[in-house]
Design brief:
Mean pLDDT: 95
CATH architecture of the largest domain: 3-Layer(bba) Sandwich
Number of helices: 10
Helix content: 25-40%
Oligomer: single chain
Strand order of the largest sheet: 5-2-1-9-21
Largest sheet: 5 strands, parallel
Low-confidence stretches: none
CATH superfamily of the largest domain: FAD/NAD(P)-binding domain
CATH class of the largest domain: Alpha Beta
Structural class: alpha/beta
Strand content: 25-35%
CATH topology of the largest domain: FAD/NAD(P)-binding domain
Number of domains: 2
Radius of gyration: 21 Å
Number of strands: 25
């Protein structure tokens, strides 16, 4: 009986595995990919899509087409729970379960919505990426009628990129420029290099974006933003950009997790509790050295994950993952403005954005062509 490899998600950490799917098929292994969309969007270009720099086809991979073209099986659905004892992946909203011999998880992350009370069609998160398209349409719909207020809540890279690209969207579409407010907690871009903080502040304030450092947001409700000090503010469009958390599938499945809820893996990107479960990207907690939730680590995990999935199926020794050193910080602040920082080099401007644009387009083109 042939062994089955099941992949949850076709994200950044599974790109090399997907590109080499034929290698598994040719060796007689079955391969199934589970994903809630036929496409995987590259999150690093999401804010640029919001701003209008990119169209959806520019920033996504046709996962289903790739999998089926290489002889694999694509399942359109959301993995809800793993049963490691019976070696089954249960799908959300159905009684279907998919068996596996080796399981690899690239289930991604989500923006916590715990501060949001009730339903509101004008609240948007950066994940899933498709939501930014809906946000784009809604901003333009409201801004045509007059000046609106757009609030971005968060103090990280996502918040500055969304703020700057909302500005670009409205400038290029020639609608009334919104009042854009960035709620930066108690310290704008906390934890980032000081020069990066200063450059980001200068660029955003030059665009007229207000940076508020009056405290954290406690609650969002029906267009109201309530701060921890009790102060209330109003906004027409709200983007919670408060960081990301790993998919809840692992805690739900009783698998060993890290303090962030991510699948706890060892130096082989292998679950510390089950030797036939692997993972990469935002959804894991790398036990040896907790990693930032940035795409560069998923990209670095790619070849190791591919080799270890094949080795697991063939009962061969596994390869260790080395996270590597310092990574490039590079942000798209809209209107062709960017910030680049690595080692002692930090600069901002059009050239910084062009470098990011070139890197991103080259990365996605590589896998789109596959």
């Amino acid at each position: 009986m042939k062994k089955n490899l099941v992949l949850i998600g076709g994200g950044h950490a599974h790109m090399v595995t997907l590109a080499n799917l034929h290698a598994f098929i040719e060796k007689g292994f079955g391969v199934t990919v589970i994903q809630p969309s036929e496409y995987h969007y590259y999150s690093g270009m999401g804010p640029g899509m919001l701003g209008g720099t990119y169209k959806p086809d520019d920033i996504r991979f046709a996962t289903r087409r790739l999998v089926e073209a290489k002889g694999g099986r694509f399942v359109l659905g959301r993995a809800y729970r793993v049963d490691p004892g019976k070696q089954l992946v249960h799908l959300e909203g159905t009684n279907n379960a998919i068996p596996y011999d080796i399981l690899s998880c690239n289930a991604g992350s989500f923006v916590p919505r715990g501060m949001i009370q009730g339903e509101n069609r004008n609240i948007f998160t950066a994940k899933p990426i498709e939501e930014l398209l809906v946000a784009q349409e809604r901003i333009l719909e409201l801004a045509v009628a007059g000046r609106i207020t757009v609030a971005v809540i968060g103090s990280g890279p996502s918040s500055i990129e969304i703020s700057g690209n909302v500005h670009q969207l409205c400038r290029e579409r020639k609608v009334v420029m919104p009042r854009i407010q960035l709620y930066g907690g108690r310290r704008f871009l906390s934890g980032r290099p000081e020069r990066v903080r200063r450059l980001a502040r200068t660029i955003l304030e030059h665009k007229g974006i207000e940076i508020l450092e009056t405290g954290y947001v406690r609650q969002i409700e029906s267009g109201r933003i309530i701060l921890e000090n009790g102060q209330e503010c109003q906004a027409d469009i709200i983007f919670p950009a408060v960081g990301v958390k790993p998919s809840p599938i692992f805690a739900r499945s009783g698998l060993p997790t890290g303090p962030d809820g991510g699948l706890r893996v060892n130096e082989y990107l292998q679950s510390v509790g089950y030797t036939n479960i692997f993972g990469g990207g935002d959804c894991i907690y790398f036990e040896a050295e907790p990693l930032d939730k940035v795409g560069v680590y998923a990209v670095r995990q790619n070849p190791v994950l591919y080799k270890n999935l094949m080795a697991g199926l063939e009962d061969r020794p596994l390869e260790k993952f080395q996270p590597g050193g310092t990574y490039l910080l590079i942000y798209n602040l809209g209107d062709g403005d960017g910030i680049l920082s690595k080692w002692s080099i930090t600069f901002a401007g059009k050239f910084a954005f062009r470098i990011k644009d070139r890197i991103d387009r080259r990365f996605i083109r590589t896998f789109q062509e596959i």
